[in-house]
Amino acid sequence: MVKIAADKMKESFERHRASPRISIEEHVRSRQLGLAQSVLAKQRVYLDKNFWILIREAAMGRRAPEAAHQLLHGLRQRAGGGEIVCPISESLFMELMKQSDPETRGATAQLIDELSGGVTLIPNDRRIATEVAHLIYSLAGRNVHAIETLVWTKLSYVLGEQHPVNRAFDAAETLVIQKAFFDHMWECSLAEMMDVLGDATPPVNDFDQVAERLNVESARHAGDLRTFAQTYRAEIRGCLSVAMPTARQVLEQLVEASPGALAGTPLAEQRACEQQLLDYLCAAITAKEVAVALRTLHIGALCHAAVRWDKRRKLTGNDLFDFHHAEAAVGYCNVFLTDGPLHTMLQQGHMKIGEYFGCEIISSPEKAAAYLSVY
Question: Per-residue pLDDT for 259 more than 60?
């Protein structure tokens, strides 16, 4: 086994030394596009944390309802036959890392490896940046890949890519090392990652504090919002504002300014440029094709607006995890298996989730098992 791994690594180094003109960025994009071709040829079924726990219990032979066993069987049968894939996202990964019991965490990781085929969506912030850049390039008439082909990666890069740098090697050899290292990590399973991470502290998030801050802001402006559409507009403006630095950088490149050219201009001018972009996108996103293009921000804004519109409800940190699951699943998958409250919220008529994205949202294990048996 060790010799096979060493031979494979040697072959990788030799192959990359023979292609010095291919940058690490080009190599990564090539692998991701190849992965996307495979992923998009299958039904994409996204499970939230509760559904992964449900089928894990069945897989471990623990007490679980019959529907859980039926669902697990259906998922295994369809995934094994190459008909479906069950990708995860960084939100699911962070929830997995929060599991304190190494036995159940390891079992969940093994099940994810089996059903996901090692596939995950790129991190939420990078997905937003990709969607914004893709839209602007598209509007400018540039040739671009379909957005659905740009958002997939492997589980080892669920939190993003990092490439090793060692000043002991020259630029050419560093590039070889980076591409060979990427290929090695590309094949790593989630279970292997869990073994390496061991009892490492899970990625930190401050979702509870963020939720509390948003609740305070919502209460302050509650009287200003008269309709759901108005509430959505307030939320999408806030969501879009975070992406404006990316939009400005893309615009720089389109007008053939050197990267970062505006960095030397007064801050007021940079902010004015971003404000104009923000106004434009806030107006444009009322069109269905723009909302679909910026789907991560759009779905997130809808979820926040739905909670804010319900005056009796307070936002929680767990809600923010749910919203990230919805953004990933509804935006890029065919089926979303989630809990009842989120299912109910996403099915509200003013959300238009089904009309815009055609994602089947299921909260019942029995209905999920039945769906897999007939689709």
Answer: no
